[in-house]
Design goal:
Six copies of one chain form a homohexamer. By secondary structure, chain A is α+β, with helices and mostly antiparallel strands. The first copy, chain A, is built from two helices and four strands; from the N terminus they run βαβββα. In chain A, a hairpin with a 2-residue loop joins strand 3 and strand 4. The two termini of chain A are 30 Å apart. Strand 2 of chain C pairs antiparallel with strand 3 of chain E, so a sheet runs across the interface.
């Protein structure tokens, strides 16, 4: 009965299909590695506005500019 | 001085009155069971889009269809 | 299928019975107010060391001393 | 590599500049006090609707009315 | 730069190797499905005492007894 | 009435004084930047075992070895 919270930045193109793939993937991972019961595994995805996410002391967009094209 | 976070799926009809009832109910519960001071009890309710909530390896709507009309 | 996280300070005497009462109480509250299904309601209680909990800009024990005997 | 989550009530005027100042401030604090590496310090700010935030057993606006002009 | 929090019940035998497998698995999943940069993906695993985890209105051990040998 | 959760790796030497400095620092920051009331600002610090913290797809100690002496 694990609980998983995935926080990602809200980018334009995250689709319902991709979210379903995350839910399935992490539930399967917990079943495979720890034998956790998929039926009671809960996954919650939070999409966070770019202004509200900081790394390296900067909002994420400023951080990316500083990194010149770094990853998502 | 407890902190309580309640995450629920965002369904159409959750009203401000219902949220107030949750806030009051959980604060009262902590005061009754553990003697916690209501004045410094904080409650935060997160409403999560259905696409972003998974259970049983599926997004919640697909899970409900699979369960044939299971609960909220 | 709500998820509830209750954070409380770790005081000497929180018993398994009190925790069970919190779990039952909050699950019942969500069923009564919002019709949420108890079967898939998950509750996680975190007990936090006093040094690790701050309020009013102070660790909780210093805050309580300042308040001269305020509540838990 | 700390992770910091700041939850505040969603009031009209929180600007991107203020959020950047929070991100910078908390990252600097962790570097100064604990020597944590700013490069891998992550900060996530959640803005919570007033209806969804409770204190003292009341939604925050009712609590503020009760306190007659208390702080944010 | 996702942040993932995995909460599981603290059972006797969760090894460092299994935790490493969870960290690797969820990081790889986010890179594959959403193109997220593994370098800045943070994963935090919380192991929660059985008394502190509730489902179906019961502490997890009482719930399992009720379910007669249900999953972890 | 903000709520702040600070998660750090559990290293040997985090003292109560350092935690008090974090609590004071973040509470002061929120008062200065957003005018938040210190009296109702709650800070919770979680110290996470090294095995339970991942970055870059690795547990933090393996990540640090890979980075050859990178920061905390």
């Amino acid at each position: 009965m694990p609980y998983v919270n995935i926080k990602i930045t809200r980018e334009g193109g995250t689709t319902a299909e991709q979210k379903a793939e995350l839910i399935d993937g992490v539930t399967t991972l917990l079943a495979r590695v720890l034998g956790k019961n998929p039926t009671t595994t809960v996954v919650v995805i939070d999409e966070v506005d770019l202004d509200n996410w900081g790394i390296g002391g900067l909002p994420v967009e400023a951080f990316r500019q500083q990194q010149r094209g770094g990853g998502k």
